[in-house]
Amino acid sequence: MSTENIIHLNHLQFDNTRFWAYFLSINYPCAVLEESDCSMPDFVGQVLPVDTQWIDCFTQYYDGVFEESDGYLEHPTTLLADLSPTEHFKIEFHPGDTIFYINDEEIGCTGPHWELWKIPYQKIKEVLVQNDGAVLFQLLLPMAALEPDDTSHLKPILEKQFSELGFTEPVLAQMIDCLVSGLIKTE
Q1: What's the pTM?
Q2: 3-state SS track over the chain
Q3: What is the pLDDT of residues 6-37, one digit of tens each?
């Protein structure tokens, strides 16, 4: 793996609004608020600037990447982090997909052939006690398998974290409901 494309959690704190606008916009393919037919990009774009030039640079997009390799790169921008002393987390940010790994085993992705609902929410919330736990929690959340009973615990966490990103009412509540809708497994 090329070390020049490696990023760490300290690059992705909540003050990096370009990253979070990108991440929240693309990693919840099943999140739709039915009453308004709005998806995550609709809500994110109301508050955070979606900087396509920055996104292209971050994902290493170039004209022809989809024709040449279906949007996948040999050396994508890659986040490396530890979930525990024995669990290592990795996310590959390709122009056409975001792929999630634990201990180098692919657990899911959010691109056009998404594989979601891979980690029980109860396991994901355990990272909140770590240093940088809030950021790690957000990065794992697209892979969460949420049970309806989990929403009462998740919503206050999202409210606090999204408030740090600058979201306020009424967009904040709508965005949280939208995101939660995408974490409950559909058949």
Answers
A1: 0.95
A2: CCHHHEECHHHCCCCCHHHHHHHHHHCCCCCEECCCCEEHHHHHHHHCCCCHHHHHHHHCCCCCHHHHHCCCCCCCEEEEEECCCCCEEEEEEECCEEEEEECCEEEEECCCCCECCCEEHHHHHHHHHCCCHHHHHHHHHHHEECCHHHHHHHHHHHHHHHHHCCCCCCHHHHHHHHHHHHHCCCC
A3: 999 999 999 999 999 999 999 999 999 999 99
